Amino acid sequence: MSRFFSKSRIFNSIRFYIFLLVFVAGLLPSLIFASSLSNSYEQKSVSTETIEIISQIRTLSNRILSENYFEDPTSQQVEAYVDLLSAIYDGRIMIINKDYAVISDSYHLAENKTVLSSEVIAAMQGVDVSNYDGENAFIEVVVPVEASETGEVLGVILASVSSTDITMNIEYMSENAMVLGFAVLILVTIVAVFGSARIVRPFIRMSENIEKMQTSMEEAELSILDYEETRKVSYAFNDLIARMKQTEESRQEFVSNVSHELKTPLTSMKVLADSLNSQEDVPAELYREFMEDIAAEIDRENNIINDLLTLVKLDRTNGEININSVNINELIELVLKRLRPIAARHNIEVVFETQRNVIAEVDEVKMTQVITNLVENAIKYNTDDGWVHVTLNADAAFFYITVEDGGMGIDEESLPHIFERFYRADKSHSREIGGTGLGLAITRSAVLLHRGTIKVDSQLGNGTTFSLRIPLNYRTK
Predict the structure, then answer these.
(1) What pTM does this model have?
(2) Residue from 34, 22, 377 nearest 177 by CA
(3) With helix as H, strand as E and coil as C, how does 130-158 read?
(4) Nearby residues of 40 by Cβ (< 8 Å), 6 or more positions away
(5) Dihedral sign (CA 299, 300, 301, 303)
(6) How confident is the model over 29-46, as pLDDT tens digits?
(7) Structure letter (DSSP) for residue 416
(8) Residue closest to 189 by CA, chosen among 7, 14, 13, 25
(9) pLDDT one-digit tens code per residue, 309-326
């Protein structure tokens, strides 16, 4: 069984197919050339021989006419020339009169007999006829004898000439071609073996390098630049490895951040609980205060877990989105109605502006979460007596939401990272402001799920503006 699979791997390898291609490409033209050369030689030799025989027959025809042989078939000169041609060409020559009777036969076998072959009949019409029979190795020529003055056909001369010399030469050429073909076969095999090995060598190196990379991802880099194809594969592979490294680093950082964020509320609760346990006769007011702090930490832990679950669900279920036709104006009004009491605690004015009624295909729950996160952040990272402006607009294909505030803003260094998980631009106020550091990551994932875009523009101390662009029609985007 292992031998079968070994053979199967050989026949399925690219090296085998390259070998086969080179072998066929090298051998096939040689075979075609040898065959065409043999056929070409045979045709050329037969044509030359036929022309020469016809020339000699015409000479004989002239002697027949000059000797008036058809009237008096006793000319010794004609008989001698017939015998001479028969000997030269190792063939048979017959002179046939217009009554289809043989009046002279170099073999002296058919004299006074009638010949009615199609070739003789055709020649009696004044047409030269020639046939080649390669199987039996002879050339047959039938030439009419025409009176010089009137052009009347007085008879025909039929010559059957042996083509053994041509056949022998062809056999000789075939033997030489076979030897040459065998030499070409050996040469092509050598070229195919070494050529295929040379061609696939970069792919073998590539496979070996990839196997080595499995043990050490840190030093993983592919550099097989022999061919344009291997160069492209190397670049694509290195790009993939770089992304994998980045993903792994992000995963490790995410796990570290999750561990830290989940551990912090637990640590706080443990400290508060230990403080209560270490004191005797704790006053009710202090006990209540500690329990309120513990409850706040539990709420914080619960918020982190809920946000993590939301983020994981967005990452894992790209296709699970409940699209409905939603009035975006009413959706924003509902969100602002819930958040205005929070803004009122710090005397922050929340204003909504729009010039048209916008109906769009969105997931109402996820879009509510997006708007809530952005407006809630604008309120949290604002100043007392500040403001938040929410605007809605649309064109033929998209609707646009901007959430602008006049708050503390984001420094330039933090802007590229604000959509990262657990990233907080203002770490000094993150504890007192609250939040899990996952809100903007969830917002971005939900916007991308709607095939939209989100951008941010901010300057430290001059407020922040988030801009959304979402397709009106989800299915035709």
Answers:
(1) 0.45
(2) 34
(3) EEEECCCCEEEEEEEEECCCCCCEEEEEE
(4) none
(5) positive
(6) 766 766 676 777 778 888
(7) G
(8) 25
(9) 666 666 555 546 788 899
